[in-house]
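User: quick one, fold this
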Amino acid sequence: MVQSILNDPIGILGGDVNRLSSHRLEPLYDNWYCEPLPQESEKSFFVRGKEKTLQYISTYPVKDGDDIIFSVCFTMDIG
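Assistant:
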């Protein structure tokens, strides 16, 4: 999903990690976030937020049999 929006004008502020258990979402209290740096352009922030999200999701330790769901918070501006 994140790969498909790398060039879109949308940013990612962060997200949360949940486990699907007995057809219910169970919060794992793991998360990541990305805040704009002083003087950072919107475009640079959007790219950095997506890169941070890809890194977090790709390295998250998933155990065999776990159904992990990442919820992502998007933004259209850094205002």
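User: anything notable?
Assistant: The beta strands are 11-21, 24-33, 68-75.
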